[in-house]
Amino acid sequence: MSRKWSYLLSSVVVVALSREELDAELGAQLDALCAALHSEPFDPAPFEEVGERLVALGYVNEPGLKRTVDVLGKGLLALEEFRSSDQHTVRVVGGIGALTCGFTAARARAILDQQESMQRSLLKAAHDAQRDQRQSEAKFEGIASSSTNGVLIVGLDGRLAWGNESIGVIIGRPPEPGTRLVELIAPTSIVVFREMMETVLSERGEFEREPMQLVRGDGEFAKVTLTASLLRDDEGQASHVLVMADDDTELALLQGELRRQSLHDVLTGLPNRQFFTTHLETVLRRADPEFGVTVLHLDLDAFGLVCNSLGARVGEHLLQHVARRLRAVMSHEKSMVARFDGDEFGIVVENTARTPDVATTMANINADLGEPTYVDGHGLAVSVSAGVVHRPPADVDPVELLRTADLALRQAKRDRRGQWELFHASEDATGRRDAALAVVMPGAWEQGDIGVVYQPVRDLATGGLAGVEALLHWDLSDRCAVLADESGLILPMGEWLIRIATGQAQWWRQRGELDQQFGVRLTHHQSTDADLVSRVSKVLEETAMPAARLTLSMPVGVLGVAVAADNLGTLADMGVRIALDDFGLGPRDLAWLSALPVVSVLVPEDLVRRQDPRSAALVPAVHELGVNLCVDGIESAEQEKWWTEVGADLATGAHYGSPLDAGAFLRKIS
User: Which entry of 219, 523, 624, 664 is 20 to 30 Å from 563 by CA?
Assistant: First the structure.
């Protein structure tokens, strides 16, 4: 009953209590009413108090009382405890009447209190208004006298009644009282001035504001902005016109300087990103249809190294030097050089038939910046990497254009320095699709859309099963691990993959169905994860998987990172077998084998397809170091035959079937 009461009241009046709080409040009141109905002798006072409480809660309208009477009148009589005798019926009716009386009395008191409060507020407001008027008149005179703006009080007849000192400074002479204001207006502004005053006097607006010129005492003109508004007397009748004169001469200079500063970089004096973006709109519209424009997004290589070793001050001087050199290199072209953020710069070139190609331009820039400059006695030389958009469509959005240039820059800087990359629309479309998938990947993993599949590792000499590799699988992308690595999700997801794989291996081993080496490939971020060893240790402990039955593959490219090398050595000491992924069969790759505890290497797919005799010649060198060689991505019997003949040990790939879930994989190999 209390919940129904609460619900019906909430539908007609909003109070500060939440629904739960209101339920509790009305439940307590209902308990009090029931107790009163049972009391001997019957005392209707609690009903009256409930009526007063309703008003205190804010239910002072008639619908609130009506809802209460309906609920209590029907609800109390419907209760089993009050249906047994007519005496309770009489008490309920009497109680409802008492509640109504209490409600009405409390409501009357509340209304009287509101009226008294309003009367006190009105009296105070009138008193404050009189006091404020006296204070405002004194304040106006003080403010107007000290204001740097010209202030004039003009009669309705157009003659000057009062003026402050600043108006005398603006026009070069103090205006005499009684002077007609129109005499101070330059001839070129008379028409605008008359129209403004007519508008003000006709009360068609609160104020009028117009730029115009005043006649100075020396015969010159002062540029000002006049603002005119009516002043009224105590009876609300127009009495004077207040005219404010803003001196625009210094304001115009200040606005020009502020605008210049807002569009230029303070350190280098170059246009900033905002100015550059606006300029792009104009450039794209007027670009030569045949040659178009070229946009370059530049980034200094190793600038952080300079700042960290020599300090921020040296870095700032270096940025100023780079800005000067970029302007000098591009001075022969119709171009704009801008500084974006930090050590990033932008260049837009309006191409002509004589404009050098992008490769020449970048070579010239890096050759010029490669000449040492001395900062605080340090001879510094830098190179730049660049993302380039050549001849974009004329209707492209400038912001989108800069985004694509930045995307190309990130490609250029990937593990390289002093390089440039041309933007390709097809790569951008692929990148956007991958980014969209990476964003939704956490949800897909949580919902079970991402799973684990298994593929066989075959012994090339016998064709038998040499091991099993566990992989992440997602129907929406065949680059699941790559996307997870780029988004950072790979750390928890990679640990989950190892846990699922080792758990499955133990399950098959305990049932006597499959007892093979299990492999998992680690990504770049997994390999350099400071918690990798603890993650693997925890999984092996949870699943009781023997460390020697697990093979973890690391990309060769991470071995130069100290954390990855430490992880590799510690895992090997634990008994985990270590393999190297993307092994290129080059001298540098072979050098790692003699320095690290590696048991196997995986040759990447591009080398597998190439079937290069030079790669084949290095297979014995791998074997001499006691390392197995696995070819990754065998697609045909021809490839399998070739790599078998050159001495490869193991193989994976589509030739041996698609990766399958645990059940299907076991059925296929059984």
Answer: 624
Nearest of 544, 619, 549 to residue 584 by alpha carbon:
619
Alpha carbon separation from 545 to 221, 516, 539, 567 (Å, rounded)? 93, 12, 8, 19
Helix orientation angle between 358-369 and 312-329, rounded to the nearest 10 degrees = 140
Q: Tell me the per-residue pLDDT of 424-468, one tens digit each, with 9 for 90 and over.
A: 765 556 667 777 788 889 999 999 999 999 999 999 999 999 999
DSSP structure string for 562-575: HHHHHHHHHHHHHT
Strand partners, 221: 215
Q: Which helix (H) or strand (E) holds 200?
A: helix 190-201
Give the C-alpha separation, 57 to 64, whole Å: 11
Cβ neighbours of 424 (radius 10 Å): 15
Question: For residue 180, what is the DSSP state?
Answer: B
Helix residue spans in 453-595 (DSSP H):
480-487, 490-510, 524-527, 532-543, 562-574, 587-595
Strand order in the sheet with 384-390: 335-339, 344-350, 293-300, 384-390, 420-422
The per-residue pLDDT for range 11-27, each reduced to its tens digit, is 766 666 777 877 788 88
Token pair in block for residue 230: 């009516």
**Crossing angle of helices 19-38 and 45-57, rounded to 10°:** 170
Q: Is 609 helix (H, G, I), strand (E, B) or coil?
A: helix
